[in-house]
Write a structure and sequence with these properties.
Strand order of the largest sheet: 1-2-3
Helix content: 40-55%
Radius of gyration: 23 Å
Number of helices: 17
CATH architecture of the largest domain: Orthogonal Bundle
Number of domains: 2
Structural class: alpha+beta
CATH class of the largest domain: Mainly Alpha
Number of strands: 10
Strand content: 15-25%
Largest sheet: 3 strands, antiparallel
Shape: globular
CATH superfamily of the largest domain: Cytochrome-c3 Hydrogenase, chain B
Length: about 400
């Protein structure tokens, strides 16, 4: 009797690399067997935006504005990490009050980023009502950011040696009012994201990143903490005023007692961090000492001092997505000799591979979004199957995700 042979049928879905909103273009190629993801390949380094190269003709004050535009969501994290690097190289001590003000701005940005992520995650599984609610709450946070800095996104609040604007006593009631609003909404957000049956069905057991893989692949931020790795620059190095505040490295186990490392745990992680950020801002408002907000208020004098510096420095900051690192070398000229940036997305790209293997095509949007990558959605995906190429648009991929949600609810 002739033995029957079976042929493995698989096809590839390439995603990237060119995309209008990519901070660092990435190319992904998925090997699909039916609806199941068999393998994932990730390739980096296709295009460089020349952000660091632009610094070669600009002084450190001018570079602050460039750093602020590396990422629209982390528009505070990058300039403050750059400032930390310059301060390290030039041995500049910032005033104590400025350290507290920097914490407040950093935690406000964390709240804004996590709420934006929560809305996008809800959208990816077809819950646009939740998207609208979370972004409504985020609007209130952006309004508070504008009240404190004059801007909603590119805040221009950071200065080498401190901050540009102070918080006066007459501003405190408005701050507390908005924080009370956030605390009230936090309970609603927790009930929606942690108790809703549909969100549980789509997130529990999906996109698992084990603690071992998180450590091996050097994941950072909420992505690694959701896998049980207690790694947080705010706690590990206690920079700014964090050493004076009551702060611990939190994981999903603080709420549920267990860590699974799935999409659901990454939801828990960010919700816990929103609550933690509110508490940290309140602590800063209560404990913030009086004094100067910048080490050297005269910019011309500051630039003259920096021009005399020969040295290198590193700035590390716990951005909403994880640890961001800026390296600066000053060599006695107007512009730095070199400036290098490592954004958290670089670390959180490779963990996509174990997270996506074994999942369905319809899970790609929510699993990918669960790491909060600083990469915009691809406009379309090119698919090659049996030698024939066709296109899967962003809208079609989103539709597949929504349809899976509906199937699970039947």
């Amino acid at each position: 009797m002739k033995q029957k042979t079976t042929t493995k049928t698989s096809y590839h879905i390439p995603i990237g690399p060119i995309h209008p909103a990519l901070k660092e273009p990435v190319f992904f190629e998925f090997e699909i067997d039916g609806e199941r993801i068999v393998d994932v390949d990730v390739k980096l380094g296709h295009v460089h935006r020349a952000v660091e190269w632009a610094s070669r003709k600009r002084n450190p004050i001018q570079i602050l504005y460039i750093a602020e535009r590396i990422c629209g969501i982390c528009s505070y994290s990058h300039p403050v990490a750059f400032a930390l690097a310059v301060e390290d190289a030039a041995d500049i001590m910032i005033p104590e009050r400025a350290e507290y003000l920097r914490v407040i701005q950093g935690e406000l940005e964390r709240i804004c980023s996590h709420l934006l992520w929560a809305g996008v995650a809800a959208h990816e599984i077809g819950f646009d009502t939740v998207l609208f609610f979370t972004w409504q709450v985020r609007e209130r946070t952006l309004d508070l950011t504008e009240f404190l800095t004059g801007n909603r996104i590119t805040k221009a609040i950071t200065m080498i040696g401190g901050v540009r604007r102070d918080i006066t006593k007459d501003m405190l009631p408005r701050i507390q009012k908005d924080l009370d609003y956030l605390k009230e909404c936090y309970g609603k957000l927790g009930k929606i994201f942690l108790e809703d049956k549909t969100i549980k069905l789509r997130s529990q057991g999906a996109g698992i990143l084990t603690k071992e893989d998180a450590l091996k692949l050097c994941a950072v931020g909420p992505t690694t903490r959701a896998s049980g790795v207690k790694k947080d620059v705010r706690v590990d190095t206690s920079y700014f005023a964090y050493g004076d505040l009551d702060i611990d490295c939190i994981t999903p186990a603080d709420l549920t007692g267990t860590v699974n490392g799935d999409v659901y745990d990454r939801i828990i992680q960010r919700l816990l961090e929103v609550k933690q950020s509110i508490d940290l801002i309140e602590q800063c408002v209560d404990k913030m000492p009086a004094g100067d907000i910048v080490a050297e208020p005269k910019i011309a004098k500051l630039l003259a001092q920096l021009k005399k510096v020969n040295g290198e420095g590193v700035g590390r900051h716990e951005a909403p997505r994880g640890e961001v690192i800026h390296y600066v070398k000053l060599d006695g000229n107007d512009a730095p000799f070199t400036w290098k940036v490592r954004a958290p997305t670089y670390n959180n790209i490779l963990p996509w591979i174990p997270m996506l293997k074994g999942e369905q095509i319809a899970d790609i949007p929510i699993v990918a979004a669960s790491t909060d990558p600083c990469i915009s959605c691809t406009n379309r995906v090119g698919i090659v199957k049996d030698g024939n190429k066709y296109e899967l648009t962003k809208e079609q991929l989103h539709k597949m995700s929504v349809e899976k949600t509906r199937r699970l609810m039947r």
